[in-house]
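Box S2. Input/output pair 1.
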Amino acid sequence: MFELLDILGTMAFAVSGALTAMNKKLDPFGVFIIAFVTSVGGGTLRDILIGRTPVGWMLNLNYVYVIILGYFLAVVFRKKLDRFRTSMFLFDTIGLGVFTLIGLEKGMETSLHPVICIALGTMTACFGGVIRDILCNEIPVIFRKEIYATICIVGGIFFFAMKGLNVPKDILYLLTSVLIIGIRLMAVIFHWSLPALERK
């Protein structure tokens, strides 16, 4: 289940990055670079922080192949994905749920405190999108009113609560990813957001 989710998350973020880049009318190379950094940016930061080098995607070329596949799928079916905002949102949401789990798992493998594991899960899920948005000249979603990183934190707390109840691992992964994706969808549908801080 974990390996399947890992592949799914990598693919989802690759497509999300490619769609964002095409929406900005970048050339094919630019689209590929955005797809690549969206997929591996968060995981690269996480691995560097926990001292896991070379970072994951450098040791396993399957990640590169999955990103290339996601890139070509986004390019080939771009006309069918003409509703860029909806498509980007859906793929970004899937990636958010899956990559949070991956960060949590990597933190536990390193025997880190649950609070640090949740922080790693949030970084893994969010910072690929931060790099994507910065390169595409957008204010990153994580810094806007829209609920984003908060959902990863809630998902991390839920994960460790269920883990304490000895929920089977595969079911735990599934429940946590569904919770994160579900909250993200409801946040957009019902316009949930954190209050913006303004200087008076």
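Box S3. Input/output pair 2.
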Amino acid sequence: MPSTTDPRPVAPATPPARRRRLLTTLVVIAAGVLLLDQASKQWALATLEEGTRRALVGDLLGLQLVFNPGAALSIATGMTWVLTIVATVVVVVVVRAASRIGSALWAVALGLLLGGAIGNLVDRFAREPGFARGHVVDFIAYADWFVGNVADIAIVGAAGLIVVLAARGVHLDGSRDGDATGAEDTDAAADVAGTADVDGTADVDGADGTAPTAGSADDVRGAAGPAGTGAGATVERPGA
């Protein structure tokens, strides 16, 4: 029986079948992003000429082959090793977080993030000028702001979705801020709301953390007169 000393409701484990479906969704999205990213980069290498811009939507959107040693917006161009380590850490964190997945939207967000991170990490490890120092292939030019790729689009999309989920209080395991069971005492729910991951299966027996007990025979007899007093006896009901 759950301890009554811990006020935090415990979210139930995601059913194995549902978790498998969510993990499959995450992996399929990540693989799709990775394949699309690498295929588009190979197309850009075979089709585009470095430094030459092709307009798609006037000056707003174009194609321009760039080999980027840094991050987005050409930030940290002299820190390629650091960026490689950061991208590797992101991949490890996402993979570990996937074991607790319980939300379809989080599966989509993590799939986009994982696919985008691996897509650019492949460039870091496999392209010139060398292992873990490779330059990322960028070819989507946004006005005169910066040049990116499909992996960048996936990463930005994942970041936006994660912000929305966090703002709505949706947790990785599928629970939401403020969820509580219908049997949970209102005051107890107010005490724990916003401080615990709950999803409607909290085991809270009462506002004071103790289980209420059913009225005993003594409760009934306590209000009655001596034996044999008859109809004049009154009965005090528990909780009245």
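Caption for Box S3: Confidence is low (pLDDT under 50) at residues 6-10, 180-240. Helices lie at 16-47, 80-97, 104-126, 150-167, 186-192, 217-222.
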